[in-house]
Amino acid sequence: MDLILPEFGLLFWTGLVFICLLFVLTKFIWKPILSSVNEREQKIAEALDLAIRTKAEMKEMQAQNENLQKEARAERDAILKDAKETAVKMVEDAKANSKKESEKIVAAARMVIEEEKNAAISELKTKVALFSIEIAEKIVRAELSSDEKQKALAEKMAGDINLN
């Protein structure tokens, strides 16, 4: 039973050592431990505050990033719209210019065709006149080949002159 029930001397010295140890711990070690624990607690609190501020800043930066993305998208859409309008305008201008050019070419071609037509008609009239003169000359020679025919023609012409 000695192990279960200690004697009074053992209890006294154990208590005395405990009280001395408690006094030494309280006087010399407790304050530095508490100050280091308090410093650690303060650093942890500061780290948590910093984490909260960083999280808030991140949210703010994320919101700014989203706003920048929206602005960039809007600017991109505006640029694409302007590009499409410019392309449509360029196509319309090109169509109008090509239409004007084609009208000029068609007008020039019509003028050339008209000039060629007039030249062909003039040449045709000249050739018809030459053929008519040749035919008339051949007919007159055939008609006037004999003296009797020449006399009859002269009398007919004289008769036509008197009647007028």
Structure explained in plain terms:
Helix content is 93%, strand content 0%. The protein has helices at 8-143, 147-163. The N and C termini lie far apart (189 Å). It has a domain at 10-122. With 164 residues, it is mainly α. The model has no long low-confidence stretch (mean pLDDT 89). The protein contains two helices and no strands. It is rod-shaped and about 195 Å long.
Features of this protein?
single chain; 164 residues; mainly alpha; rod-shaped
Q: How would you summarize this macromolecular structure in one to three sentences?
A:
With 164 residues, the protein is mainly alpha-helical. Helices cover 93% and strands 0% of the residues. The protein has a domain of 113 residues.
Any chance you could write out the topology, listing elements then pairs?
Elements: H1 8-143, H2 147-163
SSE series:
HH
Termini separation:
189 Å
Count of DSSP helices?
2
- Largest sheet at a glance? none
